[in-house]
Amino acid sequence: MTKVQASEDKDYVQSLVRGLEVIRTFSRYKPRMTLTEVAEQTGMTRATARRFLLTLVREEYAETDGKYFALRPKVLDLGFAYLSSLPIWEVAQPIMRDVVNALHESCSLAVLDGLDIVYVARVPTERVMTIGLSIGSRLPAYCSSMGRTLLAGLPPAELAAYYDRVKIERRTERTVANMVALKDAIETSRRQGWTLVDQELEMGLRSIAAPVKNRRSEVLAALNVSTHEGRTSIETIKTRFLPVLLDAAQRISAALPQ
Amino acid sequence: MTKVQASEDKDYVQSLVRGLEVIRTFSRYKPRMTLTEVAEQTGMTRATARRFLLTLVREEYAETDGKYFALRPKVLDLGFAYLSSLPIWEVAQPIMRDVVNALHESCSLAVLDGLDIVYVARVPTERVMTIGLSIGSRLPAYCSSMGRTLLAGLPPAELAAYYDRVKIERRTERTVANMVALKDAIETSRRQGWTLVDQELEMGLRSIAAPVKNRRSEVLAALNVSTHEGRTSIETIKTRFLPVLLDAAQRISAALPQ
Predict the structure, then answer these.
(1) CATH fold group of domain B86-255
(2) Exposed site from A132, A189, A228, B228, fewest CB < 10 Å?
(3) Per residue in B30-40, pLDDT tens?
(4) Using the 8-state DSSP alphabet, how is residue A206 labeled?
(5) Contact criterion met (CB below 8 Å) for B120 and B109
């Protein structure tokens, strides 16, 4: 649907969509912006951007010193509404902690959103001394272990729609090179019930993922453990990590509220 | 400002505010709602709630099976915009991990938002086997160590405004009983440069906090370590935890981008 069609539809609240765009415009690289900058970033007129910014300020989602605008912590309530609406969250965290205790590697949980995976939980290992932003982070699905696990769990029509839209970009020399290789890899994931991705996202990074399913065997999320190639061989991942991961994914699946 | 005044103001985009209310209506207790339920929860007409919900669905912030509506992970992008706009985030995490490694207790970072503190980062210790939702969680400022630290850092006019609005509720038998006691406690925090709160939020819970400041000595955030009364005496908190905490808060302050 194009913007023009959308704005003609009486059920479409354009002000909401544009206001959300204003929120999303703020980032690590642009934490504070003037009215002019927000207008430029969003393609709005200054007058329109001003109305949205002042509304966000009045509702305490943003603040201003008269010149610069910045977001306020109330914005977290919006993402918090999503996270706290996931029944998987509370169930998964203690089980993920068990995985980290057993393997001394970070354990993450992600869901699929369009072409990306989005992290919804992460338990870091103490080994990792720097952590980037985790919850809410996005990665392309095709070259991550959780992504392939989630794609393998899609109904055929949705997977076909994904294949139509995805564009493969080789992130490392090991990234799947084309659609044939990707389809093969996803077929393998489905058949095996787990996915090992070796340095396709980033050189040095290895990870293994398994699906979390509901009682109807629909894949709700993917659980993974990631490690470094210099620390853990493929063999160790398969013999030591995989059983722990499969057990944890199954425990989370079984513990989900019905 | 009342709703009526607000809606009459031409700079106020009511559709944005109501749309954000719709997002916030979803929660752990109401992860999936019908149109009727959303209308009831938000006090909107069904027709209005429907327009907002369909807009959120079309923009992929929500999904529906025709009857129930639920949020989608794209909502996390909104909170992510805020978190990633905080320069403190990346600087603080590795230092917080050092604190956890040294003390084997969880370390958190929070900012003030109105009457509440809001968690913006948390590094759990392995000891804690169940973790609730952390980032985005809110607690009343008056009875938490990070809250009192942040209040002690407010300019006098803002602190006076806080005192006008706050309502003290005794969460435990140890919670400050009245405004005189609260003002005393905050004065002590300011004088000491740290805050110890002993079971005022919840029986058994002890925590100690210190301010993170920018170069102009403005308090940007509070850093804390929390423990259990059965595990750690007040004496141990003061002699062993406090130096580690103060050192970490100072390192974060010093490392902040200018």
Answers:
(1) Beta-Lactamase (3.30.450)
(2) A132
(3) 889 999 999 99
(4) E
(5) yes
